[in-house]
Fold each of these.
Amino acid sequence: MTQETAPPTPATLESPSPWIRRHLLDLDDFTRDEIDTVLNTTDAMKEVLGRDVPRVPALRGKTVITLFYESSTRTRASFELAGKALGADVINVSAGGSSVEKGESLIDTVRTLQAVGADLLVMRHGSSGAPYLAARHVRASVINAGDGWHAHPTQALLDVYTMRTHLGDLRGRRVVIVGDIAHSRVARSNIWALTAAGAEVVVCGPLTLLPAGLRPGDPRSEEPLSLPPVKVETNLDRAVEGADVVMALRLQQERMHSGLLPSLREYATLYQVNEERLARAQPGALVMHPGPMNEGIEISPSLATSLQSVIEEQVTNGVAVRMAVLYLLARGKA
Amino acid sequence: MSPSLAIRGGRVIDPANGVDAVADVLLVGGRVTAVGVDAGADANESIDASGLIVSPGFVDIHTHLREPGFEHKETIASGTMAAARGGFTTVCAMPNTEPPSDSAACVEFVLRTAEAQGVVRVLPIACVTRGRAGAELAEIAELAQAGAIAVSDDGSPIADAHLMRRALEYAGMIGLPVIDHCEDPALSDGGVMHEGLVSTRLGLHGVPASAEETLVARDIALAEQTLSHVHIAHVSTAGAVEAVRRAKARGVPVTAEVTPHHLTLTHEAVLLGPGEAPGGLAYDTNAKVNPPLRTAEDVEACLRGLRDGTIDCVATDHAPHAIQDKLCEFDAAAIGISGLETALGLTLTTLSVEEALPALTIGPVRVLSLGRHVDGLGTLSPGAPGDVTVIDPEAEWIVEPETFASKGKNTPLAGRTLKGRVVATLYGGQVVLDGR
């Protein structure tokens, strides 16, 4: 057996906890150990990706179907590459151009994809909770690749992986998430993952873009059914103070039309992550963005491409993280 | 002599007449003729109600029967059978049918179909505005003449305050109450559940409490100005209850109802759902309802409001849907709960029988002045219709939606044990539901 075709060895995939999950829907019930399992597996996958022929047959004979009801560049491409690097057959289905346009329901669509042989179903949908509905109706593993405003667990995993690469243990690290928290699945999944990893999470944005329960003065909820407690700040200068990581979120332009913001100009004045503001953070603080970026709005162009920016690295890590997730879920079911 | 039927030896609770005693109820010729110890000793037939409670038949002033137009969700036949199962002998049918009930022909269709196929009494509610479009008044006088007992654009609030003012004046002149679904569409726009911690957790678009409270406040101001009766449908927030309480204290002609689900369930029902859910989040579309299930504080305020008379009655807002209407993404799911058959059991989870029965009988009758249309409705007074509900308040049962008479199996209560069962329902002196 040549090195190129060797599967990741058990030694590199020693996991601190047994993996028993069938689906990856969100990180809200992940323990710190489980997150470590994914991140350690990601290390092994990065090693695979560094080989001359970045392929292992770990998922040979498995079929991964990506089902995207919303547009995507990086998530979809990285899932496809991840599946192929593991030797799986990967098929991409878009809602546009599929029977969804003929009115096929979500349940019928996922059952159909299972019937054609999907072992793993990677799903993006504009409605929060849609992957949960799919998971109720198929035996295949469902991976949430983004549902509405709710969750984007592989994004949060790659974010945490990228942070860990640079900062090591995240316990006690201050991570500031800036922007449209209310409508952000990236923010929600990161709140869960970072809290589990022991980081201190600060969310920052204008009041109109902070959701109920995550507003200044809201009682710190101890209710088990709400998001974990985070710090909330509407002033970015204060939020960035002493930060180890500053993550800017994409600002969707349509927010201007629904009365949530007066103008992009004013938003950039108050909430743009730029060099001046970053000076208040820890020296060498990481700058992150889940993409796609509006450079000049939520992040200054020069900062996005600066040495402190790990934005491209996030994208690169996305492939390895998604390999780890596909591998663990496929193995967990066996 | 007409055939007589006695319901014997039960605990008769007739809130309208202040009766709570073990007695017989004698029905002759389809009407109540006597209530008293051994009043039914000589009847042709009798039903043994010992150990059970005998109440006037329940009255629901907020029912969606879906016919005409949505017969796959419910029909007048199936909906009235569900009513009988739930102990209701009178239901007021909401006009959001297809076509909407904004013409005499539509009102007459409902009455005629109910007469031919209905199991219990149906009193039609007609539209306030043409086509429920919220732009022009419907011909309210003609609707009243055809048999409408109130007007409402239910499901759609009357967003235009000027039109609401004119509707109150015009309907008030004719003597019909205006029932408003209070929800400011600008504030609730796109919302699918209560705006709060759970909507934030689930990433669902929330409807703030203020969407209801601003319209309740507006309607109170308009009722105060016009001196016309406004009835607030399905109150769901603490602020709305408080607004009605203050308005009543200064004599504004406002009444309010609350649903069994708003008296008992919170927004957590959306998250938890029945049974195990993958990932632990149910996104239970059967708990998607409008107004949305809200917080524990709101539930507590609704209970307090019902107990102190701020809220006048319980109404089901029975909103049946076909299975596929709910078996989809939460955002896309139809709105509403099939409520007739669980109303009693759910209400009794938080209210005593003594509190619940007035709210299910004379309370709703007084709200819409239904006694003007049906003499003695909601009572066991001599001469009242022979509408009687016999219940076992201690009997426990498990909610199995597939056994509902309603075509709408959409309930968030599937699998839940409720206490309080309808044993028999009599309508016009006839047994229409015998669960003995």
Amino acid sequence: MKKLSNKPRARFEDPLSYFSRARTKLYTLWLSAIYPFVSIGRNLSIHYAIKLSRCVAPQIKLGSSVIIWEDVWLYVVPNPGENVKITIDDNCSVGARSTISAKNCIHIEENVIMATSVLIQDHNHAYEDISRSIRDQGVTVGGRIRIETGCWIGQGAAIVCNEGDVVIGRNSVIGANALVTRSCPPYSVIVGNPGRVAKRFDATSGFWVGGDAGRPVLTELVRPQIT
Amino acid sequence: MIHGHHRSRARFEDPVHTVFRCVNKLYSMWLQATYPFASSGRNLSIHVPCELSRRIAHQIKLGNSVLIRKGTWFNIVPGLDRELKIIIDDNCVIGRRNSISAKNSIHIERNVILSNSVLIHDHAHAFEDITLPISAQGVTPGGRIRIEEGCWIGNGSSIICNAGELVIGRNSVVGAEAVITKSVPPYSVVVGNPGRVVKHFDLTKQVWVDGPARSMGTELPRQVCGKTCPTRSPQCAAHRQGAEGHSAVYFNTQETTNG
């Protein structure tokens, strides 16, 4: 499989970039050595610096060849229950400035690529009590999120699960700035806020249907929900 | 190779984090000591780096226990007046990479949580003159923004006020990626682009109901009156009926929309 990091090189790289690459390498080694992850694969690249507390590392599992770009925030809400709350499988790439916040379970399967500023969150703030400020009300029970193999999450997209399961089907595309609060079928393109299926792969005809000729065939997928 | 032996719970935090925390603490103290803020409360925490210029600090007021995470950008459009432009009250949390740009006034009241990547602008670029590039046309006169206490603004949402006053009512929720350009009534949930109310709290039945309040339609009401109820309590009957001196913007607006 083609690795994301093996780009063709110019004859020599800007020498200044060696400093940041060395820093990333050292940072990755430091995290692998010091942080008590559930498991951590080989050939990882975690760019300096991500926001990750050592206390939540025992609930995070990272696969091989994962790239995590700088400024990513991995957060686990203190909550008894499952041991592994965030799983990132082999060959995933988590874009810069993304936020992954888990209360129950967030599973990102193999070969998923995420653009920058993505939000993946399986819980929400509770707001039902009007006599207290939302800040003091804690978080909701939340659900579980699974992003299946080979998906691509666009820039600024938000995947939020308030309750139940949200599954982003295999090889699906989430468009830039889309908001997804419900599951979506495999091989589909989701755009908009709230997210709708703009295109999907028709297995019988073998073509991608909908969304051509400038007039997308939109299917209501997500009822507007709070996030 | 999988490191399977790190199964024990973390007994201590990463020592490098202590360095970061010290840097943040020192940075907060440095800002409080050297920047001429209009006023700044106790127990402030401003993370490095924040884009906050010393030149604009005299128009910014920060309350007690405010937390401002890193990458947040504060901007004040240069003007002749010297009045307060950005007010952040006690216990507010400003997430990462927020962009707060004021021309007239942005007031964030107590206990508001802003998530990451939120944009709050009370002005916009003017674009009406087609002979000039937009960069040379300056900004619009803009309006005023007030976010009332206890609100929660979701990840990546934008709150933009081009004219008049934009008020996000008490304890309201703005969903992720929402775009808000008009006022939001108190105790409601707004999502989408353009933002619309999908849930509100029915004060008579005391329950959360789907959809916007009946008299308001799907569009968010435009602010017509700047007065607010002094008690700001949902149980205040005068407030609900929009009586004199209690004319909360939302209730007045309902009457105008109905009429």
